[in-house]
Amino acid sequence: MADLLSIGSNAANTFKNAIDVTSHNVANVSTEGYSRQRAEISSNSTNSLTSAFNGGGSTVDSIERIYASYIQTQLVNSYSLKSRYDEQLSLAQQVEGVIASNDEGVQDFMQRIFDSFQNLADNPTSSTTRQVVLDESENLESLMSNMVNVLDETNDQVNKQLSNTVKEINTRLEMVHKLNEQVANLVNTNAQPPNDLLDQRDQAILELSQYMDIKTYPQDDGKINVSTGDGRLPLISDKTLTKLDAGLSEYTHDNRFEVYMNINGERRVVSDNISGGQLGAVLDFRENMLDQSKNELGVVLNGMTASVNWQHYQGYDENGDAGGNIYAPLDTNALASSKNTGTEDGTNILVNFTPDIAALPGYNGQPPYTPGTQPTTYGDKEAFLDTAFTAIGEFQAREYEVRVNGAGDFDVYDAKEGGAPIATVPFGTNAEIDGLNFDFSGVGAGTVTEGDKFIIKPHQAILDNFETVLTDSSQLATRGQSPVDTGAAGLDDEAPAPAAEGDNVNIANMASLQSKNLLYSDVTGTPSETLLGGYSMMATNVGTYVSSTEIQATAQSNVYDQMVSRRESLSGVNLDEEAANLLRFQQAYQASAQILQTAQSIFQTLMNAIG
């Protein structure tokens, strides 16, 4: 009798709990990150009654969370990559149309300039045709100004995105940290795992992975430690929460944000430790597309500026004067690190295009040539031009970091690659590096100390400062040279002089620069690309970046969808299944009630018999 009552009572409680769990599943069918739960029902221990053993009914041992940690980990990783490539593609496509446009872009405007040179070569005495050369040059200048504005806005957008994304990351980190504490407290005090809190924490971790790549490490006390995706930097560890922050780099005047963490009391740049999520997307886009394409475009523009100017120096204008600059030559300086202890702010560290011709025969000074600085002979002048073209071929699409070493000299590095120095320049001197003149002669004694750092971006500087400086079309040096016979044998013994009015040799040579290989010399020192070819290479690299990102975005989206399906098939709520469970548990509950009613009837019969 007592056993029947206990069995019925236990069964009623068991199936009431099962109905509650099923109802909870149904109620959370649309809750993000919810894992369905299941009442684990088992038979009660049997009771020993004399020589017989009777059942003890049933009980709910626990409420199991239907969950697989390995699926959740794969879901987090795939979501981080999907978010990265989706965001990266969006940013890349914005810039692709600006930098690598095929219509009315830099390539078209450069082609128009060379076409204007050729038209002037065909009619060298036409004032109208002369003016077209300057007009087309100014059109390119206007285009570059507009492009630089867009690129500056893009850089500002990157800075804002870094800042906003870091705020989102910190919010999710705080949430995970708070849930960690709640989970640990409940695990220590209850036998039943806090299933709903565990789901909320997993969802917060999944949302965190949208913004950056992470690794998670479950702990025995129920907490989860979180680190950066490379596993090197802890974000959440035990009771410690380390937030990120975004701010200007140590080169504050560069207007470039980096991601920082406080590590052992030191604010350290951790941008290189992040590769996934939206934060990784912005960082990768900036370095591998925005910066790289600006540097490659700058090489083309520096190549055009230097080659056109130096070829122009070879000729003579309508007045018989030697050609001057058509475009403002490269002339930029360094930016100092805010961590420097010396007083040099970088303004005395100069980079320009000054080919090393001083030791060559016939040198009387750097061009533009004046009557007192003309080379001694025609051959000398041609040798200077060849030296300039060789230097142009050595241009590299990179940025430079300068560090003061223990000897007080200047080590020059590739700012992106690091590694060993490209060159070391003694204090107070200058040197040609990658075809450019790095001039440290203006740095004052005692103004730099060991460890001081500076950054220089010469090929981005030309984008900002490109300018047509020749404004009088009569000063276009269309004429070539008419060597004066000195009586000695050999052309090198003849001094340069203007050719006759109407000569077109020099402007024809300027027009031919579009088909001359000038850029990216190979190991033998032979240039491999024309100016327009250099632009095409840059545009191709941009297109490759966009297309490869698009492929990755599609692939990672498919992987993510598969992982969502896997999770849903295991942990998701199936309303048909839950409806069947409700009906089954309801019937079992009603049967349990019938057991209680039977026990009551038997008890009443016994009482009546005794009574």
* Radius of gyration over C-alpha positions, nearest whole angstrom: 38 Å
Question: Helical proportion?
Answer: 40-55%
Residue runs with pLDDT of under 50 for 5 or more positions: none
Summarize the biggest pleated sheet. Answer: 5 strands, antiparallel
Proportion of residues in extended strands: 15-25%
Cα distance spanning the termini: 18 Å
| SS-derived structural category | alpha+beta
What average pLDDT do the residues reach? 92
Strands in their spatial order, largest beta sheet: 13-20-15-16-17
Q: How many beta-strand runs?
A: 22
Number of helices: 11
- Bulk shape: elongated
How would you concisely characterize the structure shown here?
The chain contains eleven helices and 22 strands.
Kindly describe this structure.
By secondary structure, the protein is of the alpha+beta class. It contains eleven helices and 22 strands. The strands form seven sheets. A five-stranded antiparallel beta sheet has the order 13-20-15-16-17, with no helix packed on it. A four-stranded antiparallel beta sheet has the order 5-6-7-8. A hairpin with a 5-residue loop joins β5 and β6 (224-228). The longest helix is centred in the first third of the chain and has 63 residues, at 127-189. The chain is elongated, with a radius of gyration of 38 Å. The relative contact order is 0.14. The mean pLDDT is 92.
Brief descriptors of the model:
5-stranded antiparallel β-sheet, single chain, 11 helices, 22 strands, alpha+beta, 611 residues, 4-stranded antiparallel β-sheet
Could you outline the blueprint of secondary structure elements for this entry?
Layout: H1 2-27, E1 37-43, E2 47-49, E3 52-54, E4 58-65, H2 69-99, H3 106-122, H4 127-189, H5 195-211, E5 214-218, E6 224-228, E7 234-237, E8 240-241, E9 244-248, E10 257-263, E11 266-269, H6 277-313, E12 331-333, E13 335-336, E14 350-352, H7 378-393, E15 400-404, E16 410-414, E17 418-425, E18 430-433, E19 436-439, E20 453-456, H8 458-465, H9 505-511, E21 519-521, E22 527-529, H10 531-571, H11 575-610
